[in-house]
Amino acid sequence: MKIRNKAAPVHFLLNVQAFGIIQQKKGSDIMEEKNIYSDSTRMNYGDGFSDDDAPQLPQQPVNMQQPVRGGVPVRYKKPKLKKKKKGKIVFGVILLILLVIFLTAGIYLVLVLSRIHYTFDFTDHSIAESNGITLKEESGVTNIMLFGEDNHKEGENGRADSMILLSIDKNNGQLKQTSFMRDIFVSIPGYDDNKLNAAYAFGGAKLACETIENNFGIKIDDYLIVDFNSFTEIVDSLGGIDLELTYNEIAYINWQSYRNHQTDDENELKKDEYDYYEDKDGYSVALVHVNGRQALWYARDRDSAGSDFDRTQRQRIVINTIFTKLKESNPFTLLGTVFSASKYLTTNMNPLSLTGKGFELLGALSYERKEHRIPSNDNYYNDYYDYCGQVLVISDIDLEKERLYSYISEKQ
Fold first, then answer.
1. pLDDT of residue 180
2. How crowded is the C-beta side of 29, counted as CA atoms within 13 Å?
3. Please, where are the H alpha helices in 51-181?
4. Which spans in 116-152 are helix H?
5. Collapsing DSSP states into helix, strand and coil, what is residue 368?
6. How would DSSP label each residue in 149-192?
7. Domain ranges of the chain
8. 273 to each of 116, 250, 257, 360, how far by Cα in Å?
9. Within its chain, how far is the Cα of 315 from the centroid?
10. With bands split at pLDDT 50, 70 and 90, how would you rate the model's confidence at 161?
């Protein structure tokens, strides 16, 4: 007697499902899946097990390459990187880039600040107030006194060839320059009346600022001394600048460069080869590209066009040209220029304050630029004193004060 294997029907059914047995009709008949649990194949195996007891499996074709679990094809989805994990990676990369930028900027800033000379010799505003002068200041306007110094020796005050009050007017978006003539006859605190330039020789930038406050009633926030060597380096780092020069100005630059053994060519700038045209003031000029040394001789020239008035105008022209060139420069050139000039700067500001004022000035490069000069054309006369020579005496000091404050605090 044969013993029936009760598990055989189940194994058979599972094998049928697992291997997808399909009955194929001949001729034009289409392929049709044979359902082993349909009524046409219902069976009773005589051991109490029938088709009704079999598990109801999904009636669908089986992919022979798909794995099967419990008789049911398993569908796998392509694994995806979670969005949260992607976000962490992107954030990490951005953070790393920012850290590198901040670290590089920090190192650069420390190097620049370490090259600057600090006096911490602050202007005593109480001197003017003790003389009954109320110092005027305008909210939103920063006043920084710029001194162009020459012949500086350690432990001594050099000669201030230029004195310009730089006013950063955030209210009106303007960068204002006020030139003070060095031969103005002024009252110097603690000394006899003398030229403004003498105040710098007696007590440096601090005394010069106190003298300006005492005579003109405007409050000066800080000062910056610029060695003329920095002037040449700034221009050279910018690749030179273009200036409108007269025939005589070109000749003066050539003569000074040659006589000071800075060039072997007496006609370094070919004055006879330029194309001259009439400028807005009616002068015959040519557009000349100059290097730092040549630009410095132009700024110090008071021989080819008459007087110290012309020289202060040239200084303002050069500063404006440099500001324009800086504004148009790429960031790397700008950073290089600041680094080159830093070792020639002296200030009473601490590093933190200087950094803030420096960024303020960089932001002001795009401002409208304006110019002013003291004394005004119609408010002075020439005089002479044996102990100090030719001077400029201001006719109406109160009028000059009012003009200066109105210019700096201009309301629009």
1. 95
2. 8
3. 83-115, 126-130
4. 126-130
5. strand
6. EES--TTS--EEEEEEEEEEETTTTEEEEEEE-TTBEEPPTTS-
7. 8-73, 81-115, 120-408
8. 42, 11, 19, 42
9. 24
10. confident
Q: What fold is seen in the domain 120-408?
A: Aminopeptidase (3.40.630)
CA–CA separation, 111 and 339 (whole Å): 8
Query: Which tens digits make up the pLDDT trace of 253-301?
Result: 999 999 999 999 999 999 999 999 999 888 899 999 999 999 999 998 8
Read off the tokens for 220. 């000066």
pLDDT of residue 24: 44
How many Cβ atoms are within 10 Å of 344's Cβ, its own excluded?
A: 21
Nearest 10 degrees: CA dihedral of 107, 110, 112, 116?
-170
Q: What is the DSSP string of 195-235?
A: EHHHHHHHHHHHHHHHHHHHHH-B---EEEEEEHHHHHHHH
CB atoms within 10 A of CB 184: 24
Which helix (H) or strand (E) segment holds residue 401: the answer is helix 397-408
The C-alpha atoms of residue 210 and residue 220 are separated, in whole angstroms, by 9
31 phi, psi to nearest 5 deg: -70, 135
Q: Label residue 317 by pLDDT band (50, 70, 90).
A: very high
**DSSP conformational letter for 87:** H
The predicted-structure confidence for 52-65, as pLDDT tens digits, reads as follows 555 555 555 555 55
Task: Measure the CA–CA gap between 251 and 142, rounded to whole angstroms.
Answer: 39
Could you tell me the two tokens for 392?
Answer: 């400029």
Amino acid at 186: V
In angstroms, the CA 50 to CA 35 distance is 15
How does DSSP classify residue 39?
Answer: G
Q: Answer whether 291's CB lies under 8 Å from 254's CB.
A: no
Q: How far apart are CA 111 and CA 23, in angstroms?
A: 86
pLDDT number for residue 152:
57
Residue 303 vs residue 264, higher pLDDT: 264
Instruction: Name the residue among 199, 101, 104, 192 with its Cα closest to residue 147.
Output: 199
Take residue 112 and report the two structure tokens written for it. 């620049």
How far apart, in whole angstroms, are the C-alpha atoms of residue 395 and residue 326?
Answer: 39
The helix or strand, by DSSP H or E, that contains position 315, with its residue range, turns out to be helix 308-328
